[in-house]
Amino acid sequence: MTAARVLLVGILLAGCARRAPLVDLHALDPAIRVEMPYATPHNFTGATLYPVARCLLRRDVAERLVRVQQRLRAERLGLLAWDCYRPFSVQQRLWTLVPDARYVAEPVVRDGKPVAGSKHNRGAAVDVTLVDAGGKPLEMPSGFDDFSERAHRGFVGASPAARRNAARLEEAMVAGGFAPLPTEWWHFDGPGWERYELLDRPLTE
User: Fold this and answer.
1) What digits encode the pLDDT tens for the residues 130-148?
2) With left for phi above 0 and alpha for psi between -120 and 50, is residue 162 left, alpha or beta?
3) C-alpha 163: how far from its chain's center?
4) How many domains in the chain?
5) Which domain holds residue 116?
6) Which of 25, 35, 67, 163 has the most C-beta neighbours closer than 10 Å?
């Protein structure tokens, strides 16, 4: 294959990735629990940001998460999803509340078009924790959206059980191709996230 053809194929694949649809994680694997704090007022903002508790992801990211769930099932463990695709307009609201790039990606708009934001806005990131066979969340170093050092990976002040659980979650997700975020033990980016465009599609579509 010539260099020109390789370049053309790469461009076509990138274009297809950008247009890849979002899929409902629950439809792929109902065993993965979905509890979206942003669909309730029980989150750090105190406001309901999502109209529905729905986990949408790009298909490749969702299928990877399903495979992680399948491997964890052998250990009588499972996943609980806290956040998946996040509309760009919600990202703007979060940045207004917490303008700290360690914890919230800054949404940037140029000429009326989103040009920078969270990987959640691309449907290519997920916030998850571990649950036992009965669906009960395991102890972790902090709660969700804890904007402190307790949420950082490698935080030594947590209990031994919490550190083991966080390490097991990270090990399972990394084995599935996900990349961990240093400041949030629950956040993982899907591989190739940069191929996907920023979206402001409603969660109800």
Assistant:
1) 999 999 999 999 999 898 9
2) alpha
3) 20
4) 1
5) 22-195
6) 25
